[in-house]
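Model: You mentioned two targets. I'll fold them one after the other.
Researcher: Yes, keep them separate.
Model: Target one:
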Amino acid sequence: MRLQLNTAALERLLEGEDGQTIKLDLQQAVIEEFGRRHIKAFANDGEFKKHVDIAKKEAIKDIESMFGEWKGSYNSKKFILNSQISDMIKLQSKTAVTYELDKVEEYVSDIYKETAKSIKQEHEQRILKIEEDLEKYAKDLEDRVEIVKAQLLTDQVDTILRNHVKSILAETFSVGK
């Protein structure tokens, strides 16, 4: 299918708000077609590729020189950072490590605080239990002492009464002889 527009039909098509959208779409299509036909051939040209490679190498060289330089022989080349970059990395590393150490220190401190609090509560509960047990033991001891006193008193009263009964009986039976 082929669509062919004359000038008058194209002008009517491009009028109004819809015309702007169509105009942009037509322009994009024209650009794409131009690129496909002309730029592709230019990009595949050997001279153009050569210039692009030279530009890449120069850009890499310039960027590397901003950060440091290559040292050593061809087989053992090593990239050495310049002092500013190296110092910046060290400072950022120290800052990051310090920050992480501070977090660890805070975490460990919180663990110690929670552990100490837990141990304190546990010992306080044990002391309260021991105090309760001692109070109970003291009360039981007091109760036993009272029981023993009562028994001793009963035994003494019993002994006194027996002795008294014996003496009464002795007097009663000895008078009549």
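Model: Target two:
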Amino acid sequence: MPTPPSDVSALFVAEGDHFVPTVFSQGPWSPEHQFGGAAAALLATVVEAVPSLVPQRVVRLTVDLLRPVPVQPLRAEARVVREGKRIQVLEATLVCEGLEVARCSALRMRLGSLGDIAVPRGQGFGGPPDDAERPFQGPYEEASPPGVAGAAEFAFADPDGFFVDPTWIRMRVPVVAGRPTEPLAQLAFLSDFASGVGHPRHLPVTGINADLTVSVVRYPSTEWLCFTGTGWASADGIGLSQASLADPDGVVASVTLSRLMDPVAEA
């Protein structure tokens, strides 16, 4: 396997018609596989590059992680499934050496105006408090675990509550080197951390998510987003994590993840 770039502060480097993942894309489970949010962010970036007939915004992004996404060059493809001035439906895929490894479906809606109607925004959260616990704050070389821990910054209000409500997270690197990160890509990347926020801690289980669905009411106005959520598991090994993402003005999106759950192996 080629060595991923380690001297670029981004998740991916664009080379021709491929996106080359850097060390910042590496997931916490294996250095050979990407963090699911990295692949989701790349799909969101590809989707946002597709034009629409009128001003529109993605209101739902569903990403299926078909198999572990390798830390290898990826080719991205996007197409419009349904074109229209009120809604647009798109699909995008990531392909590695001829094999489809991830795909997404995106729904765009036209932008309008509700005038002076006072709309509910939900509870807003500013940036993390000054005394919040902040792990993984060093550069990549000092981060542990490697990879994505250097691409994100975390803050926990409860120093003994890893990913307990409320949790603040922000991206530290762009999705593609030399390009601004689209708000949808920011949400897609961060949403994969809902697996931690929504993990049922009272159960001796572990789990990985095979998808993520982000429902967006508006794009965030800040880098830091506050996560609040919960999660459930069934006796047949299927789990669900759910979280709300908020900025100082209120809720910006909700995310759900379907998870494969297993008992924690005894030492």
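Researcher: Noted. Anything on target two?
Model: The mean pLDDT is 89.
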